[in-house]
Design brief:
The protein has 392 residues and is α/β, with parallel strands linked by helices. The chain folds into two domains: 151 residues, Aspartate Aminotransferase, domain 1; 201 residues, Aspartate Aminotransferase, domain 2, CATH 3.40.640.10. The chain has 15 helices and 13 strands. The strands form three sheets. A seven-stranded mixed β-sheet has the order 2-8-7-6-5-3-4, with helices on both faces. A four-stranded antiparallel β-sheet has the order 9-10-13-12. It has a two-stranded parallel ribbon with strand order 1-11. Strand 9 and strand 10 form a beta hairpin. Helix 1 packs parallel to helix 14 and helix 4 crosses helix 11. The longest helix has 31 residues. It is globular. This is Threonine aldolase family protein. Its cofactor is pyridoxal 5'-phosphate. InterPro entries: ArAA_b-elim_lyase/Thr_aldolase, PyrdxlP-dep_Trfase, PyrdxlP-dep_Trfase_major, PyrdxlP-dep_Trfase_small.
Length: 392
């Protein structure tokens, strides 16, 4: 390639990135100005909106108590609440889920004598954490069946090498927020036990799974040896995570939390937001999941009516309140149409970014929460028609 050609490619890439950055700013402005959105996102929210989570915080915790110091006080209260909800002996608060899971699997590696962790190649630590398992924690990941679903019991039994821990992401976000059936999940756990492996749940969004499984949280968590949960994904908190499991494991994890730099001086704003999520948002999640199924069906019907029958909602009946939408267009085309719709009508149907899994394909995530409950199926179909009218 000539120098001029290389220069042209570089400029083209730069200009594409600049266009997407400008589009993101337009999307953020459209989100803030929209009279109606399908989902209110913390990613696009203002500082004022985020701080509003702490309104009436005195209902969540005694604000006249001393502030936390290195994990005391309100942090311990949150840990006890999480352990109670999940039915575990104990829980430890962590500033991030990445840290919580690295620590959990490092502890299990020491206890089992095997640093090998079997997990899906689409699991969060594989896709989004820059090889932290291997680079920081010395854990050796091996990948299970790459199909866009959780592994089966047969695949666990047939896996060709030993592993000390099986990690299951529930739901598997990058496959479309998918879950196995309750029967399939229990069989997978039994298969891992047959191989003398411990089972760890990446439950960042475990809070959303009770409708699909038809089981309470403590019964779901009881299948695993340890569970990680997030406070900002489903529960809309400022951040933070918890690792729950046996008391001895949690005590060991707290020692490693300190070594990893997670023994933060004071964390009460984040912890208060987590308590707000558990108190106010957690009870509403089952309603979000049920309404997500209404929204998904209306999206399919709306695109079919608009002459786009190839549009795909995955899963067809969402397993949680989040799912994916696939369209046969370049991602920049659909992203532009989504922003234009909001700018011109005040209705933002698709507020998240779009990815390009292949040429001429675009995929986005749909998240149904409180704002989405206001949308009827007719509202969704009408918004789809408006969106489709802006596609070439």
């Amino acid at each position: 390639m000539t120098e001029t050609a290389e220069q042209g490619v570089g400029e083209s890439v730069a200009s594409a990135e600049e266009r997407r950055e400008r589009l993101f700013e337009r999307r953020r402005a459209a989100y803030r100005g929209a009279r109606r959105v399908l989902a209110r996102s913390s990613v696009l929210g203002t500082l004022r909106e985020r701080l509003a989570l702490l309104e009436n915080a005195e209902e969540l915790y005694d604000l006249d108590e001393s502030a936390d110091l290195y994990g005391t006080g309100i942090v311990e209260a949150l840990e006890a609440k999480v352990a109670g909800l999940l039915g575990t002996e104990a829980a430890a608060f962590f500033p991030t889920g990445t840290m919580a899971q690295q620590v959990a699997l490092r502890c299990w590696a020491g206890r089992t004598g095997d640093p090998t962790v079997a997990l899906h190649p689409l699991a969060h630590p594989v896709v989004h954490e820059r090889d932290a398992f291997t680079q920081v924690s010395g854990v050796r990941p091996v990948h299970l069946n790459p199909a866009p679903r959780l592994p089966t019991a047969a695949e666990i039994r047939a896996f060709e090498e030993p592993f000390g821990a099986l990690m299951l992401e529930l739901p598997l976000r990058d496959a479309g927020f998918v879950l196995p059936s309750w029967e399939e999940l229990t069989e997978v756990v039994e298969a891992a036990r047959e191989r003398d492996a411990v089972v760890h749940f990446d439950g960042a969004r475990l809070w959303e799974t009770t409708v699909h499984f038809g089981r309470p949280l403590h019964e779901i968590a009881d299948l695993a040896d340890s569970v990680y949960v997030s406070f900002y994904k489903s529960l809309n908190g400022f951040g933070g995570a918890a690792l729950a499991g046996p008391g001895t494991l949690v005590e060991q994890a707290k020692a490693w939390r300190h070594r990893y730099g997670g023994q933060v001086f004071q964390q009460f704003p984040t912890v208060l937001s987590a308590l707000a999520g558990l108190e106010r948002e957690l009870p509403r999640l089952p309603g979000y999941v049920r309404h997500a199924r209404v929204v998904a069906a209306a999206l399919r019907e709306g695109f079919a009516a608009a002459g786009l029958p190839w549009a795909r909602v995955h899963p067809e009946e969402p397993h949680t309140n989040e799912f994916r939408l696939w369209l046969p267009y370049d991602r920049d085309v659909v992203a532009e149409a989504a922003v234009r719709q909001a700018e011109e009508t005040g209705v933002l149907l698709f507020g998240r970014s779009w990815d390009a899994p292949g040429p001429g394909l675009a995929v986005t995530e749909i998240d149904v929460r409180a704002a989405g409950l206001e949308w009827t199926a007719d509202d969704v179909r009408a918004a789809v028609a408006e969106f489709a009218s802006r596609l070439p």
